[in-house]
Amino acid sequence: MGQLLTAANVKALTYGAMNVVSASGIVFANKAVFQTYGFHFTYALTWIHTVFTLVGMRVFAAGGMFQVKSIPQARLVPLAAAYVAYIVLCNLSLKVNTVGFYQVMKIAVAPTVIALELVMFRRVPPARIVASVMVVCMGIGVATVTDTQMVSNLVGIAVGVGATLMTALYQIWAGSKQKELKASSMQLLHAYTPQATLMLGLLIPMCEPMGWHTIHMPAAPGADAATIAAAAAAPPIRPPGSLLAYQYHTAAVAAIIISAILGLLVSLSTFLVIGATSSLTYNVVGHLKTLIILTGGCMFFGDTMPLKKFIGVCIAMMGIIWYTQQKLASSSGAAAAGAAASGDPAAAAAGPRPPLLPISNSPVPVSVKSVYTATAARSRGAVAAAAGGGGPMINGRHHAHR
């Protein structure tokens, strides 16, 4: 027992718990902002999240969490635009859909990435990965077709599909940009967040009802003369339903701020979990988050989970677990082949991937610097594996909110 409670394992468990809480919590926080507090301004909420991320990334860089990399801003404009599109669509999907459908469509990102890679790069995955993706798609089909809340919500379906497609495109693009620019996910996020913040700031007045001008609310039809006169004498107000007319009471503001902080913690904890443990641990944690989010949707936001939908979700979860296992095995094989080709016998004989927790007798604690070093080393290994014929890492990316 004492061997398990090493400083490294305690740190890894702490990072894993932080990732589970933040990634699950932001879904519930965002849904509460939209549904409970009536803040229906998707672009504005996404902009607030991005501002918090911008400030947080500056603080993390100043604290030595990662090394800042100078990247020409012109090369980041398309990636920043893709980031804005995928984040806005994900938040919009959460706004118009149930939590359960939102999470099921997040599961659909993995097979969508496979399909896009096939179309865009003619990259044919191994048969086992194709089989696992088919299982995922079958589960998603069963879960969505049997969801009576969604079958009649054509707009929600369209937004959910668009969010899934844009998320997959962003993941592929971000992975290729990391290799092209030789930058980690944190370095890339740090570099393009200012552009994303500016883009969202410009989109808010274009896409949200701002309520710049005040109006006099007319009296209801058929009102008596006294009511009409009182309405005419009342002071002008902002148009109802506009951003400036929203009642920013304490609870609503607190919910918005909490959701923004959780969004920042998602990026940080993802980085720390992968750096202190392994990609396998991060994926296992991801499956736990899915279960928590689906359960929370039923408990807190009125989602239904009939038997057929539950069976569909279970099938999709089994498929995504199988898919994860195949992707990690494929990445390990590609890395071993690359090490053998490079003539490094130590790396070639490294054997299986590390366990779920970095069990070690070493008394050396896990520090921020050591986490950065481990993550950077794994990023270099992923780039080397990709150069040797492996596809872009899907599970090792930073996945912001959300």
UniProtKB/TrEMBL annotation:
<protein>
    <recommendedName>
        <fullName>Sugar phosphate transporter domain-containing protein</fullName>
    </recommendedName>
</protein>
<dbReference type="GO" id="GO:0055085">
    <property type="term" value="P:transmembrane transport"/>
</dbReference>
<feature type="transmembrane region" description="Helical">
    <location>
        <begin position="41"/>
        <end position="64"/>
    </location>
</feature>
<dbReference type="GO" id="GO:0016020">
    <property type="term" value="C:membrane"/>
</dbReference>
<dbReference type="InterPro" id="IPR050186">
    <property type="entry name" value="TPT_transporter"/>
</dbReference>
<dbReference type="InterPro" id="IPR004853">
    <property type="entry name" value="Sugar_P_trans_dom"/>
</dbReference>
<dbReference type="Pfam" id="PF03151">
    <property type="entry name" value="TPT"/>
</dbReference>
<keyword id="KW-0812">Transmembrane</keyword>
<feature type="transmembrane region" description="Helical">
    <location>
        <begin position="280"/>
        <end position="300"/>
    </location>
</feature>
<keyword id="KW-0472">Membrane</keyword>
<feature type="transmembrane region" description="Helical">
    <location>
        <begin position="76"/>
        <end position="94"/>
    </location>
</feature>
<dbReference type="GO" id="GO:0015297">
    <property type="term" value="F:antiporter activity"/>
</dbReference>
<feature type="transmembrane region" description="Helical">
    <location>
        <begin position="127"/>
        <end position="145"/>
    </location>
</feature>
<feature type="domain" description="Sugar phosphate transporter">
    <location>
        <begin position="26"/>
        <end position="323"/>
    </location>
</feature>
<feature type="transmembrane region" description="Helical">
    <location>
        <begin position="12"/>
        <end position="29"/>
    </location>
</feature>
<dbReference type="GO" id="GO:0005794">
    <property type="term" value="C:Golgi apparatus"/>
</dbReference>
<dbReference type="GO" id="GO:0005338">
    <property type="term" value="F:nucleotide-sugar transmembrane transporter activity"/>
</dbReference>
<feature type="transmembrane region" description="Helical">
    <location>
        <begin position="251"/>
        <end position="274"/>
    </location>
</feature>
<feature type="transmembrane region" description="Helical">
    <location>
        <begin position="151"/>
        <end position="173"/>
    </location>
</feature>
<keyword id="KW-1133">Transmembrane helix</keyword>
